[in-house]
Amino acid sequence: MIRIKVVNEPSELIPMLRSVNTAVKRDVLKEVTLEWKTVDEIEKKYGPEGREAILFFEKVKLVESRWITVNGSYPEKSFHTYYTSFQINAQWPVYEISDVLAAAMMSEEEYVNIENQILEKIGENGRFPGDIAEELGLTSTMLKSLVRRSVKMDFRGHCIEARSDE
Q1: Residue 9: what pLDDT?
Q2: Is the dihedral of CA 57, 23, 33, 41 positive or negative?
Q3: How far apart are CA 7 and CA 17, in angstroms?
Q4: Which candidate, 14, 28, 73, 165, has a CA 20 to 30 Å from the CA of 125?
Q5: 3 state SS of 137
Q6: Residues 76 and 118 in one domain
Q7: For residue range 27-84, what is the model confidence (pLDDT) as tens digits?
Q8: What's the CATH code of the domain at 145?
Q9: Model-level pTM?
Q10: In which domain, by residue range, is 134 found?
Q11: What is the dihedral of CA 25, 27, 30, 31, to 10 degrees?
Q12: What is the per-residue pLDDT across 82-141, written as a single tens digit (0 to 9) for each?
């Protein structure tokens, strides 16, 4: 089945940019494009960074999952890319795309610092993004981009919430 991811909003570029920002992520993405792979198979080949890559791909919905049994043992979750291609409709104001690119290219140290601030603000129940953006002095585009980069939080309706390990 052919599935095309249409990117209409600038912050939707973050998952695409962050999914290939390291050699391990690029290689893992290529592997799950070719065939179904379990987390254990990926981790065995690429180490903990491979596991993190799969979890990130799952969070940003670049992969789909299904349960398989390996050698008659317990079922394991396996992953494969969800989309076969991307279509980018790009015409955004410079101030918006600059926020997106800044969030995508931000150093890991700087990102972890701001990610922790956002997580602290949302607490256990989640919060409206506009309130958080105002408190942290961020544009709404920058906040959306930072949340889309994270595996620890996500948008649920009109709120940002911490993700629970499923």
Answers
A1: 85
A2: negative
A3: 12
A4: 14
A5: coil
A6: no
A7: 999 999 999 999 999 999 999 999 999 999 998 889 999 998 877 778 889 999 998 8
A8: 1.10.10
A9: 0.76
A10: 94-162
A11: -110
A12: 988 888 887 888 888 899 999 999 999 999 999 999 999 998 889 999 999 999 999 999
